[in-house]
Design goal:
alpha+beta, eight-stranded mixed β-sheet, three-stranded antiparallel β-sheet, globular, disordered N terminus
Length: 434
Amino acid sequence: MRIIREQTSLVVIAVMAMMGLVFGTAPNLAAAQAAPVAPAATATNSFNPPPCDYNDTFYMDNGLDPTQVVGRFGSARQNGPPATGKQVNWVADSSCSQRDPDRRNFRILAITGGFPDDETGSPTEFITILGFITNQNLIPSNINAFETTYSRNVGAINGGLDGDQQNPGENITIVNSANPRSITMQNLVSNFEAYPAPKQRLANGKIALNPCQADMVSPLAPAQPCFDLSTVNAVFTPNLRQDWRFATNRNAMDGSDNNCINNDPNVCAAPSDSPFGYFCDDLLGMWINSFFWYTVDPADTTSTLGKICHPILQQLGKMNGLTTDGTPIVKTGDQLDNTLEANGCAAEGQLAFDGSDGGAIWLVCPAIPDPRAGAISKDAFLDSVHNANGTPQNIGLTENFLSLQIFGVFFSELTSSQQTSIASDATSTTAANN
């Protein structure tokens, strides 16, 4: 895997901006919390560019065959979910490659909101779902979504006025599916989990307590009736009961993981390079889908599991609100792992890597490192779950999105009068468009 200078600089600028270390006009979060002031976005303070698709070379340099990206923005899905009405999911934009040579000229308008997996439950995560990977190795055609062999030379120079400018460059290589660090792309990106919550309530009103994919069925609940995950449509927002969770916080930049990264056995007896850092290692911004679901009907108060889970679900629902299924919204890993799964009230699973289950195993959907200061463009729209009456399930996502789009900062950084205006817009405009 390589680190592209332009790509890295954008991430570094974004991270520094979050720390208040660059650009005098960048919002300072700590100061803003004390005395919120949110200037309107201008050319001088809009330094975080809106998201665009990667070009084919960048996909290949990072171990993924771009022809195997299903539903790729810029090539497909311009209309339809998450876009509705006259909306489009992406537009042609020649400035994409001008700002970053690793991008191609398709700018993404569909911005998907969710919760960071950092235990805060804050509605501050924004990503762009560029496409889906539905198999690791397509049998019998033996097509690999993740590259097994690849090589490209970069930086070679052979010339100059007197022929004295020589540089052999460096090779970007993948051998036996592994990069020069002996890491396969599929192993790397599978450290980063996205948590889609498919709808479980069926058209007849019953709650299906397991996926239809046999290898994912939890023994805690009956296998039938079931909800189907066999197409990428299963993760489209209209088919989700609540907004996403994303594990962008998985990073060990401080060395606390005690990793030893070297192929020399004299240096590292047992090389370890995991957990990886999302913004450091996962340059395509990929995730593996960890679907999670309830193994008990929220109305069940009589079965053995129902007697255990009913009060737990009631308490969680009062805390977080309810999904479109009438089940509690899950905002953190602790709530899923320790409150629900530890008591048998929920389960999670992943689709088979060989593609036999169908559906989206992995996502190419990079998180926006810092969505402030221009990253949410004026023509972008929020992709989030809505209630039956058209209101957003999580009003905080809409408030943050509008704040970022209009003022270039998060909702918490606005003045009280600005917050009142945004809060009103978040309800009225969303309800009017659904």
